[in-house]
Each structure stands twice: as C-alpha cells, then as structure tokens.
Amino acid sequence: KSSTQKTVEPEVKTKPNVEPKKTESKPKSKANPFYSDEPIKDYETFKKEIVKESARVAFEKNTEDSVSIAQMRHELRDRVNPKDFDKWIVEAHGDDIGFELTSEAPSIEKQRTKEGKDPNAPFDISDGVTNAMGSKKTYISIQDKDSVEKAKKEFKRKPGQISDPKDFEKEVMPILDAVNKKGNHEGLVPIYEIRDAMGDKVSRGDFNNLMNEMVGKGMFEMLGGEIRGEVLDRGADGVKPPTGNSRFYVKMNSKNK
Questions:
Q1: pLDDT 10s digits, 142-152
Q2: What is the pTM of this model?
C-alpha cells in the first residue's frame, strides 16, 4: 500500500510584534480646582468669587490686604461682563460679604504709583466705580481674614507649573546666577528680574512661597529697603515674607555668586 500520510512542517513560533509602551511625562503639578475659569453669569456666583479672587490677587501682587478695582476688573475680564462687574461690586459692598470699597491705596502702591498710574499695568489703576452715595472708589479692602489666609496656601496654577520646592530650587538657582551676571548686579538681584526670567514655569503664588522657603533653607537672603527706578516700578513683583515688609532684592551668598 502506498503511503498517503502527509509530511507536517515543524511549527515555528513567532512572537507578535508588540510596540514598546510610550511613557508619558506627567506634569509637575495640576491646576488647582479651588479656582474657576467658568463664566460668572449671576450675582450670587459673583459674591462667592470676588472675595476669594481679590484675596488671591492681593497675595500674588504683594499689596497687603487690598487690591485695585481696576486690577480685579482686568483679572475677571474673561469671566464677567464689565457692566455687570461694576454693578455687582457696588451691590456686594452693600451686602457686607467680606470686603469694603475704599479710595485708600495700600502703602506699596502709594510708594510706586504716581497719580494713580501704574506704568506696568494694562489698565488705568484709578478706574474705579461710583457707589450709591456718588463717591468714587478705587480699591477693594479685604476684611475676610479667612480668605486672606487661604490665599497664602491656595494658588492659581496651570498644569505643569512647578510647585515642588526641589524642582523650584533646580530651576531658580541657575536663573539667579544668569540674571546676576547678565545685569552686572554683583550679587544683589532685583526679584522682578528673577520672576520675569522664570516666566510661566511657576505661578505667582507659588513663586512667593517658594522664594520664602529658599530663604529659610539659607540659599540666599531677600532684602527690602528703599526702592528706586525700575525696581520701584515693579514693586508689586517683589515678595512679602511671612512677617515684615515686602522684599525687592535677592542677596546671593558668596558660595552661589
């Protein structure tokens, strides 16, 4: 009998083509949900947001517990209609929700502005509102101390901005050295130049607190004193320590000059 059995080729096992997993870089920080970018369409929402946002901006700008109405109108320009803002800010003052409208500027702004003009602001700082009694008001004085304290801990940041002290130290020390050399500052560097050089890598609130942490670690000192010229114009870009007056310069240690 002839053989009808078929020869079987040996089976060769091949590994499937598996693409290597792509590792996604995680952002250093996430946006803080405490702050909203949603439109403000009604008065009740405005009342909740205005004190919180005013406290935040006052901390970021180092203007004590006060901020100009023009600054807040600018800050909320993408969230609230300007006419609604002016109407609601006057109503909120009357409802006693945690702030007062005043014409009294914080001391740092008295020192650095002339006739209500801020050379670095994209608005007229004297552009306030008229209250029900016909008086012109240009500043918000924040009375809600809980909001003032919370503003020192809750920061409005974008995803990816630095919030970790170690990451901040790695970024700021080379920048400090570069700014010092470029400006021939001889170890006394204006804080606003450091802030400008850091750019969008860190939020304003985080920058303030992290700079204070660096001082606590002995990385450098921050000095106040008399401010003149460009440093005076950029006084709101200094840093306020937990106690005492605002600081406008970094004094580098001999080891990191």
A1: 999 999 999 99
A2: 0.82
